[in-house]
Amino acid sequence: MVQDRNQKRTKPNILVTGTPGTGKTTMSSALAEASQLRHINIGELVKEKNLHDGWDEQFECHVINEDLVCDELEDMMEEGGTIVDYHGCDFFPERWFDCVVVLQTDNTVLYDRLSKRGYSGLKLSNNIESEIFGVLLEEAKESYPEDIVMALRSDNIEDISRNVATLTEWVMQWQPRS
């Protein structure tokens, strides 16, 4: 069944994940432009379509309703040609993605980025710890076939440019599974 779905798509779906502050949205936007794929920022989608169950005061963010998000995305994902950008990945169906990219950033760079965003206290320390322990890479490897998961550095603009070039080339060479 997975192969049948992938054969219907003429363009691949890519998941870009990683700790907040690793450059997911920046890279996804640039990749969408370079590859002519559609970019969906899950955080923005959740706010725009009210796909959440309220506000988490402690972490200062919406509590997303994973079922509503998946229902909202289902048709687009079957169609293909979508880049999904989110800091979590284990709730998306495995069949949706042809490539899962985990962006990783040096902790000092990440600390500075998150501090500039106004992260502090528990929110800041949890995200730094998540990056130190490679939580998102492990989550991706546990949720998707390991051969479609790739970890990419995202410390600076040169890394982002290199990642966009690498992934654009991958998109151009992508063929549906047979």
UniProtKB/TrEMBL annotation:
Annotated SUPFAM superfamilies: P-loop containing nucleoside triphosphate hydrolases
Main location: cytoplasm
Domain of life assignment: Eukaryota
GO MF annotation: an example: AMP kinase activity
Residues bound to ATP: 21, 23-26, 117
Enzyme Commission number(s): 2.7.4.3
InterPro entries for the chain: Adenyl_kinase_AK6 (IPR020618), P-loop_NTPase (IPR027417)
Gene Ontology cellular component list: cytoplasm; nucleus
Cellular location(s): Cytoplasm; Nucleus
Record region (LID): 116-126
Keywords: ATP-binding, Cytoplasm, Kinase, Nucleotide-binding, Nucleus, Ribosome biogenesis, rRNA processing, Transferase
Top EC category: transferase
Subunit description: Interacts with small ribosomal subunit protein uS11. Not a structural component of 43S pre-ribosomes, but transiently interacts with them by binding to uS11.
Function field: Broad-specificity nucleoside monophosphate (NMP) kinase that catalyzes the reversible transfer of the terminal phosphate group between nucleoside triphosphates and monophosphates. Has also ATPase activity. Involved in the late cytoplasmic maturation steps of the 40S ribosomal particles, specifically 18S rRNA maturation. While NMP activity is not required for ribosome maturation, ATPase activity is. Associates transiently with small ribosomal subunit protein uS11. ATP hydrolysis breaks the interaction with uS11.
HAMAP family: Adenylate_kinase_AK6
The name this protein goes by in its record: Adenylate kinase isoenzyme 6 homolog
Species per Swiss-Prot/TrEMBL record: Tripterygium wilfordii (Thunder God vine)
Organism lineage: Eukaryota, Viridiplantae, Streptophyta, Embryophyta, Tracheophyta
